[in-house]
Specification:
The protein is mainly alpha-helical. The protein has 5 helices and no strands.
Length: 133
Amino acid sequence: MSIQGVFNEGVTKQTSVWVSSSFVQFTALLFCLAAWLFTGREGNFSSLFKIDNKYMLLGGIIGALITYTVIKSMAGLGPAQAVMIIVTAQLLVAYLIELFGLFGVEKVDFQWQKLIGVIISIGGILLFKWEFK
């Protein structure tokens, strides 16, 4: 993610955030189609119309928004700080998804050590941002 974010930011500097994001998504589509063709064509595209929870098909839109936010955060915060915040946010959201059993994920019991892990990660962000004078 760090390398991709830096690359995408470099493309954005010479184009725009939406041109860069579109290019990223388009090349990802081409790569996925090629991988599907060369790895046995498991599954077929018509099965997408049979997905039970249609909201699950929003992954591509979410991916485009993630690409946009990674590009903007890399440019504004720098790669290291941006990745720390992104990973911590992903960790927190993932734990909340598990904790509340959202989107069909099996619900887990609350565990203090997981909350402490998130708090330590947030502390790492604050420590990383802290400037000694």
